[in-house]
Amino acid sequence: MTEITPAATSDDSPGCCAGGSRRAFLSDVGMGFTGLALGAMLAEDGIVRAVEPAADHPPTGRPHHPPKTKSIIWVFLSGGYSHLETFDPKPALNQYAGKTFDQTPFENPVNSPLHKKRFRSVAAEEVNVRDVYPAIYPMQVGWRKHGEAGIEVTDWWPHLAKQVDDLCFVRNMWTTDNDHAAENQIHTGRHRLDPQEPSVGAWAHYGLGTLNDNLPKFAVLGGPTRSDTRQSIDSLYLGPQHAGVPLELDGKQPLPFGLRHAGQSLESQRAEYELINRLNGLSAVEYPEDQDLVARIRAYELAFRMQAAVPEAIDFSQETAATASMYGIDNDATKLAGRRLLAARRLVERGVRFVQVYPSTYGVWDSHQKLKENHTRLCATVDQPIAALIQDLKQRGLMDEVTVVFCTEFGRTPGLEKRGGGMTGRDHHPNGFTIWMAGAGIRKGYVHGETDELGYNALGEGHYVTDLHATVLHLLGLNNQRLNFPGRKRLDMDFGNVMTDILA
Description:
Elements: H1 22-29, H2 34-44, E1 71-77, H3 91-95, H4 113-118, E2 143-146, E3 151-154, H5 158-161, E4 167-174, H6 182-188, H7 200-207, E5 218-221, E6 245-247, H8 266-286, H9 291-313, H10 321-326, H11 335-349, E7 354-357, H12 371-395, E8 402-408, E9 411-412, E10 428-429, E11 433-439, E12 446-448, E13 463-464, H13 465-475, H14 492-495
Helix pairs in contact: 8-9, 11-12
């Protein structure tokens, strides 16, 4: 592509503001105060701003400290899997099944200060019954200890259970949204009632340079599947160039809207992009602070390069039959998750910094009813492919370069959900749930934190979701406290704290 170079400074440039010429300034302002009012509003919104102190400048693209990992594979299961029937089994649920919390020898977890501190229902508290069902619902599956570490995993994860000595479980996660906006919250750190923040993948993109100029730094496989979950990959005020790039596992058109028109040659398209590039470059001289314009220029350049690089990256014909079978691609039940996780491995091999994977469709883990039936089926769709990813990274020597995060938006209630006459499921439960991590920089065969005897509250301080963000960014060599954006002030809770105990 033709490189854009700034034009020479014009004669009327003295006295210009923030990199713009006097001509552009007068053109924008017009002949009255409308432009001044607009400028004030834009500055308040963080779109334009005066020069900030040096400490508030954007990152340079270099890590703040030596990184422990090169890439993150962030695997998200939409809908809220039950921590109790996956990675945090609780024998007391069987022992006291059918009894209320008050009929056990344990403190009623609803009365715990931890519940009061973390509970933030969107509905009025007097009409909200979620999270507080008092009748204990027994475990819907068996479990046992696995590996040299003796870590408890339920019987629905037979393949992953063989990999527990490479995994690190965090059993004391918590969040505050008790509805599915928590899907955005685990990626952004913000409750739906608060102003939104960029996603963790966008912060990683913003903070670091690329390892491969022909592929996106932040790639997304399988989602988000709805407009109201777009925030999970959004970059907001960081600029659109830092948002996640959804890729399709379609060899003919992996990039939505990225296919050349029928009959258009490569040379013709290259000339078209060069013309667009030149026109955008002329505008960039006049409006150097226009982030949307900068992003558009970069998007055209990257899209052109990706047309060749992305199809190669997701070309499974280069994989052996044994690898495809290991991921379950030859099985209808595991094919969807297997293809997406295999593509994730291929992308990080080629230098993609952050790959966000949705191995299941939107909301399917939301088991208000028929939990046993739903989780039996759903675990079987993901168990083999995610175990294969761990095994594959190990055999390729990538466990020292790649970190895997496996998470969901919240857990499920220890109590039986009885809304609408239900008798077979669990409701949403943000007060305590489990995620796991594996790979570069992470302790192996380890369990960090715990919930109470009934699996209700994350004990101690626990870990709000931004602690997970801080840990991931730390592994990439970024100090989350130093990831600032000029003109924006984040809350302390937005930064989170590194979970040092789980670091290798």
